[in-house]
Amino acid sequence: MISPLLNVRSVSKYYGTRIGCENVSFDLYPGEVMGIVGESGSGKSTLLNCLAGHLPPDSGEVFFDTRTNGPRDTLTMSEPERRMLGRTDWAFVHQHARDGLRMGVSAGGNVGERLMAVGARHYGNIRAQAVDWLGRVEIAADRMDDRPDAFSGGMQQRLQIARNLVTGPRLVFMDEPTGGLDVSVQARLLDLLRGLVREMGLSAIIVTHDLAVVRLLADRLMVMKDGHVVEAGLTDQVLDDPQHGYTQLLVSSVLQV
Amino acid sequence: MNAYNFAYLDEQTKRMIRRAILKGLAIPGYQVPFASREMPMPYGWGTGGVQVTAATLTPDDTFKVIDQGADDTTNAVSIRKFFERTAGVATTEDTGKATIIQTRHRIPETPLTEGQILVYQVPIPEPLRFLEPSEVETRKMHSLEEYGLMHVKLYEDISKHGAIATSYAYPVKVEDRYVMDPSPIPKFDNPKLSNCPAIQLFGAGREQRIYALPPYTRVVSLDFEDHPFDPSKADHCCDLCGSGESYLDEVIVDDDGGRMFVCSDTDYCRARRAAGHMGAQGVPYEEGAA
Q1: Closest-CA residue to A92 (of A125, A51, A59)
Q2: Predicted structure pTM score
Q3: Which of B56, B145, B227, B279 is the most exposed place for a label (fewest CB within 10 A)?
Q4: Testing the interface with B: which of A87, A103, A126, A134 to mutate, by most B Cβ within 10 A?
Q5: Between the CA of residue A172 and those of A31, A32, A89, A251, B108, what are the distances in Å?
Q6: pLDDT tens, position by position, A123-151
Q7: Are B216 and B248 in the same domain?
Q8: Three-state secondary structure call for residue B57
Q9: Which residue in A105, A108, A121 is closest to B224 by CB distance?
Q10: Is the CB of residue A67 less than 8 Å away from at least one CB of chain B?
Q11: In chain A, which residue's Cα lies nearest the Cα of B132?
Q12: How far is Cα of residue B180 from the mean position of the Cα atoms in its chain?
């Protein structure tokens, strides 16, 4: 019996009297990709930020299976521990690459930052790893000393992914990783993400409103509406045989070309 | 004496500054906030250093001020005059005779001794400021010892210039704990920070921070394993006193590319010339001559 990597128990977050998300529980197993879909304002980003430690939830527990101490509640652990997790075992890919990158620092420096944050002090090694990771996300080695603001949107997003994965995290949070990119760039990014997730055995939680993204990447799916999870299950099952009224609406709203 | 309280500031203000200094000495490298006062000189002219000096000065002290190593530049002369008028203390240009030395951007060449206090003027006390604009975030980084970002700056230097190009305000780590900005001293002076017998106090007036190094504190300049710290200086000897060890200023002397290198520490250069040393363009030393 494998123990879950992440065990979420009735997490709730309120903004005053309004509901951010309410009573969300699920397990995430190692190597599993979970998709969270729903319309704007349905609480999916709130939930993701609560899980990643960016927002303190009002109630609930989030147990993460740490490498050394087994399952720990990330909400009650001390801030240094949580921030340490944030730059080693966790990764967070923002919707806007600008939020996740240092725009004034070269691509190589962006990738190297996480390595230096965990104690790497050998320039040659840091640079070699940065070249390796830029290669994996299809950024040419001769662009590594350019700043991210000289990159296209798709390249920035790929750079952000390299920067996050360089320390070999086990859990990746993604907030609309393909938002704002044109469809052909989206397709390449998805292809890349799928390869990396499979190759590294990553667990991931992907928040998106794009059903095609979850169809490609996610093993399981949660559908949120008004802060509540209205339906959950295997991705194909939910998308091909939606039970809840809102899920049916969502699936039928996708434009067919 | 005159209408001013001793050393310009009132006693309660000096008490407040002394408390910040003591806290700084107790936590070497930690930036202690203090209620910086308006001083009768503009920010950037050493208002932080002047306040620290005012709080540490006693009537028995002998006071010296240097600006970029020199005793005779505007900043040094005006601050020295300021304390001559408001505190009536003895002043000197001789590093060995001074008990309090206020400095802008240099550490004297003559080794400091126990019982001396070196006061630095600091423009930006936060070494992480240009990488992380948020004060809330930098304070958190200090408290949690998250200093990876400082190396990102050095990484950028090497990737752009092939070597660590930061030549002044070179970041240091104090006793394996706080990363500290040593004020804009040349990195040539960084080794003198460590294990120094004198007390070193840092005052930033506009930014309202005081930090300190007690005597014999270990201070290490940050670097990479394969790009070690290099306290570089101009590859010359002083043209006046012939010293090969001191930090040099390059002086353009005419429109035809003529130049000379001279010690930035004027007192050190004068003392060497008085002792009979002479550089390539030097003339025999005369008492009172420039």
Answers
A1: A51
A2: 0.88
A3: B145
A4: A126
A5: 11, 11, 8, 26, 53
A6: 999 999 999 999 989 899 999 999 999 99
A7: no
A8: coil
A9: A121
A10: no
A11: A102
A12: 13
